[in-house]
Amino acid sequence: MDLPQTPSFRLDGRRALVTGASSGLGLACAAALADAGAHVILAARGREKLEAVAAAITQAGGSTETLVMDVADINAMRDQLKPLGGLDVLINSAGTARHTSALETTQEDYDAVTDTNVKGAYFLSVGVAHGMIDAGIKGSIINVSSQMGHIGGIERAVYCGTKHAVEGFTKAMAIEFGPKGIRVNTLAPTFIRTPLAEQTLSIPERKAWIESKIKLGRIGELSDIMGPAVFLASDASALITGTSLLVDGGWTAG
Fold it and tell me: Is 122 part of the annotated catalytic residue set?
């Protein structure tokens, strides 16, 4: 009997672009892809932090390079993508948040969050898809969303709106790019211990409320999203597109 073979989780020989790679979820995803064998292009706005991450990945045996990029600057971002050619993987992890009640939202806060989380992510996905199609690459685009792209949250009307938008355009792009062999999914974590999340986790009553919502009873760690990122980037998820991989400890199940 010939047994079916498990597809490989390895990414050897593949090139990946990870935005928001200087810290938090982006850094963890970049480290995970490099560990799986990919050559990782680290992108973020700050050069110093990027170079520190690149040095650490290189020291660990990974292959990487850096690219100073602001995804909210659409024209500059498009120009920066051209020399990269066809990529195999994109992890769209650049994101921001300004948490206020809906009644106190300013246009400045709305625009700042939306320009990065929606507009930047949208046009970066499109730009990378163009490169994949031109090079004949059947690639994987992974948009880092959030459990808040599936539910509502306290003082998160703008943030939730942006992540719901990411979930929506991911599905539409999956339908459009599917015939080209390009998969588009979201990775949707709960609260993970990052500098961005500390804005909320530093408030004891909020932290207690969050822990009560997560059925596994703990805040997420960066390591919790690394395996899922490699899975969505690899051939192990070859028939998965247009969906959201929730890494939320059971929050949305309830």
Answer: no
CA distance 64 to 33: 10
Q: What is the mean pLDDT of the chain?
A: 96
What is the percent of the chain where pLDDT is above 70? 100
Please indicate whether residue 110 is annotated as part of the active site.
no
**Structure-token match 């690219």, residue found:** 67
Q: For the domain 15-246, what is the CATH code?
A: 3.40.50.720
Q: Which of 119, 122, 163, 180 is catalytic?
A: 163
Domain ranges of the chain: 15-246
Query: What number of other Cβ atoms are within 10 A of residue 168's Cβ?
Result: 12
- pTM for the model stands at 0.96
pLDDT higher than 80, residue 196: no
